[in-house]
């Protein structure tokens, strides 16, 4: 986008260059540390789900919506234990392929370590194949650990793919440090992402917030504003009486 001064009035007229929007290859990486089995609330009368169950539902919501927007989008799946590994390597537009991948998802033993280097290596390799087909690659990492800070070893000049992060965590306490984990995730995202990448978090344990985050990630990386200017969905707190606010949008992690 370019800004041009209009007629000496000081007003700025913005023009958007015509640009072809690429089809996406989207690689999900799902954290399968035991913390993915923490309980999430679905509502006052809903039965509880684990984080992993809610993640599966949220991804299916995302995939169906993405394919409605553009049937040419494709998806593949990996998991994060101590490091990343494939569970469905072939990118596909078939929803049943995603369901089959989910049947292979289960929590692993705690490793006390989360290395993103392999994930970045996989993504960079796949991104080159996507580019050869005039597509772009995006990684969506769903991370569930409240005390394990992710690590990586990746050169600063290799930005071949876009990265988004959804961080589901416990509330801060003596045994965890979600703020430090969040800061490390921000650092990793900014280190590797090609286009604008988003990091969205929740410590509320509410499934609907996860679904909302996934809907926000439907935005195409080539059409995004900076996350600093992202003000959707707008909070209802100002529209409701003080005693009716649920507090689900309260901030538990600082982005500063």
From TrEMBL:
InterPro entries: BABAM1, vWFA_dom_sf
Alphabetically ordered keywords of this record: Cell cycle, Cell division, Chromatin regulator, Cytoplasm, DNA damage, DNA repair, Mitosis, Nucleus, Ubl conjugation pathway
Gene3D superfamilies xref list: von Willebrand factor, type A domain
Superkingdom to which the source organism belongs: Eukaryota
Gene Ontology BP terms: cell division; chromatin organization; DNA repair; positive regulation of DNA repair
Subcellular location: Cytoplasm; Nucleus
PANTHER family: BRISC AND BRCA1-A COMPLEX MEMBER 1
Stated name of the protein: BRISC and BRCA1-A complex member 1
Organism annotation: Rubus argutus
Organismal lineage: Eukaryota, Viridiplantae, Streptophyta, Embryophyta, Tracheophyta
